[in-house]
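Run log // design_07
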């Protein structure tokens, strides 16, 4: 079996939370809006990997009480739900990993016809699904779990515009943003383009980098300084997302990483503006996010 390497303690924790939400989501939507004509439901794992992850064997994983060397990925866990989705869309750009995903069809033969494996860029796949689906009769959950800054702002806009999707986004607040800015406010050259694309704007620098003036023997000159921390980056991203997600964005997030370093923030957003729908979604998400790893907006 091909494996995706490597998983940390927080990897398993994150996937447990996603699986818990999916279980509650499909249970609540069963026979909705009616038993005769229920919603068609879709789970989209936009960075699906292989369906399994090899656990990193380091000091952190050796003492967390879990000796399993293989972690079931989000795609596999989604297929184990008591109330399965009508359709599963697993997107993986790496052809070798995508071939490994094909094994899920034989592992879950009853659901094989519901599984679609797409070998392409996640942004292209998600945007096409959002634009081509009949959302009057369909509801979906999308899990964006990129390795870095791969998710474009256009993809988030496409998801929000459906008004029918719940989103879990593993936002690279620390690894993809905070680490790319030096103390003196300079952005790593290679990261500029990806950050502009991820935030959908160039003025994000004004929120994460402060400008002041100092006077020395050479006169007055500008001084740039990196401000905040990965939680501040997360708050900024949530504020942007609230401008497009009519159902709202939760003001809590899971702090995830390894060796106690904040690398990612797991953010929840609801695109459905219907009060009954988004209130239920937020109630489920808040219940699942109860943890000492949760961050909150000030």
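design_07 sequence
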């Amino acid at each position: 079996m091909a494996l995706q390497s490597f998983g940390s303690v927080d990897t398993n924790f994150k996937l447990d939370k996603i699986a818990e939400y999916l279980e509650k989501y499909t249970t609540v939507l069963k026979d909705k809006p009616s038993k005769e004509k229920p919603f068609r439901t879709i789970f989209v794992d936009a960075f699906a990997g292989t369906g399994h992850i090899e656990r990193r064997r380091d000091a952190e994983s050796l003492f967390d009480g879990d000796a399993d060397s293989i972690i079931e990925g989000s795609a596999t866990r989604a297929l184990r739900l008591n109330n399965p989705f009508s359709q599963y869309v697993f997107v993986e750009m790496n052809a070798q990993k995508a071939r490994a995903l094909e094994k899920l069809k034989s592992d879950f033969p009853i659901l094989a016809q519901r599984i679609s494996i797409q070998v392409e860029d996640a942004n292209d796949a998600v945007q096409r699904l959002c634009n081509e689906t009949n959302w009057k009769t369909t509801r979906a959950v999308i899990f964006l779990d990129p390795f870095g800054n791969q998710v474009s702002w256009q993809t988030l806009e496409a998801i929000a515009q459906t008004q029918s999707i719940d989103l879990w986004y593993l936002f690279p607040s620390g690894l993809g943003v905070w680490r790319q800015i030096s103390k003196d406010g300079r952005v790593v050259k290679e990261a500029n383009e990806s950050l502009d694309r991820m935030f959908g704007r160039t003025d994000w620098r004004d929120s994460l980098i402060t400008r002041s003036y100092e006077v020395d023997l050479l006169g007055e000159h500008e001084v740039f300084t990196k401000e905040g921390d990965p939680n501040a980056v997360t708050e900024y991203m949530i504020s942007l997302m609230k401008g497009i997600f009519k159902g709202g964005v939760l003001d809590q997030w899971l702090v995830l990483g390894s060796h106690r370093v904040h690398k990612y923030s797991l953010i929840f957003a609801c695109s459905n503006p219907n009060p009954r729908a988004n209130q239920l979604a937020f109630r489920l998400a808040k219940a699942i996010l109860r943890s000492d790893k949760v961050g909150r907006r000030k």
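Residues 9-29 form the longest helix (21 residues).
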